[in-house]
């Protein structure tokens, strides 16, 4: 549960190779604050098509902390596949890598999702306007949205071997 993060990370608050546990709490809080500022509410879906990175992991934790439902999308998906997933899942926000934003903007607009780029926490010069950029100015504290064991945390789409991919909850 997201509310357990603080207790668990308090055991070793500065341990870690690239990010300390404290950093994880603070960066995920920054992203959670940005998501809430974007209008994300409990149960809203956040679709993310981004390379594996510390930022994408922090965004996943932020979604959990904000009470949102995380929808990871493979970076190999085509625009037609992305169109299907966004139409089917109806996310409030669609996050992608900056290099893909122009090509995916019409698909996000068609689905009604707000398009955001993830950006890089370590490279502010190439992340202008991204979630990482917005997160730099966001508070490092966040009151986690209360969740229960039965609340939906993520939607994972199946491979679609017998038809269209379906969202597994």
Describe the fold and architecture:
The chain has a single domain, classed as Rossmann fold (3-Layer(aba) Sandwich). It is built from 6 helices and 6 strands. It has a 4-stranded parallel sheet with strand order 2-1-3-4, sandwiched between helices. α3 links the parallel β1 and β2. α2 packs across α3 and α4 runs parallel beside α5. The two termini are 16 Å apart.
List keywords for this structure.
single chain, 169 residues, alpha/beta, Rossmann fold, two-stranded antiparallel sheet, 6 helices, 6 strands, globular
Q: Looking at the structure, what is the overall shape?
A: globular
Radius of gyration: 16 Å
CATH class: Alpha Beta
| Number of domain units | 1
In short:
This protein is an alpha/beta fold and 169 residues long.
Secondary structure blueprint with pairings:
Blueprint: H1 4-10, H2 21-37, E1 45-49, H3 54-65, E2 69-72, H4 79-89, E3 93-96, H5 101-111, E4 114-117, H6 131-136, E5 156-157, E6 167-168
